[in-house]
Amino acid sequence: MTKLLKVFIVLALLIGVTWFVWERIKPGPTKETNHQILVEKIEAMGKLELVKYRFSDVVEHKNMTAYLPDASVLLIIKADAVGCIDLTKLNANDVEVINDSVTINLPKAEICYVKIDHKDSKVYDTKMAFFREATLVDEAFKAAEEEITNQVKKSDILAQTQNNATHVLKPLLEGLGYTKVKLTFR
């Protein structure tokens, strides 16, 4: 009986050591991804980004139907809005240099883009969405982007862009030797 017990103990140890080693060296799952990337368009850019606003929005979006319970989603949205000046609209007639003074008539400030940061945005809660959850979340994101764009247009982002343009370009021009710098906007 003791011989049989010793054989079982040795066999159990052997199986345990083999299992332990196998778990350490066994190959993990393999992944394969193929890409076919093509450059579709190359475009010259001349927009000088001068201010970036970060917005947060808490969105409750409901989808009400007569036959199903009301579905809702609660999102916490983070979005960026950037104000810029398009320097490609600047031409030689907009720059006047007389001795040590320069006058530049810059293009008006514009909103470069409003973009939701999907990485920092979160779906906080969904209720009764079931199979319509993806559609509901997509609708909520679109509604949030539209509302944030409207709020950006109401904000002082364009005035701040022009102010920042003055603070960025004036020292640059003074560093080039101009003692009198005048910046105006169309």
What's the helix and strand layout?
Blueprint: H1 2-25, E1 47-63, E2 71-86, E3 95-98, E4 101-106, E5 110-116, E6 122-127, H2 133-154, H3 157-175, E7 180-185
Parallel strand pairs: 4-7
Antiparallel strand pairs: 1-2, 2-5, 2-6, 3-4
Model description:
By secondary structure, the chain is an alpha+beta fold. The chain is 35% helix and 33% strand. The chain is built from 3 helices and 7 strands. It has helices at 2-25, 133-154, 157-175, and strands at 47-63, 71-86, 95-98, 101-106, 110-116, 122-127, 180-185. The strands form 2 sheets. Strands 1, 2, 5 and 6 form a 4-stranded antiparallel β-sheet that branches. It is elongated, with a radius of gyration of 31 Å. The termini are far apart. The mean pLDDT is 85.
Summarize the structure.
It contains 3 helices and 7 strands, in the order αββββββααβ. By secondary structure, it is of the alpha+beta class. Strands 1, 2, 5 and 6 form a 4-stranded antiparallel β-sheet that branches. A 3-stranded mixed β-sheet has the order 3-4-7, with helices on one face.
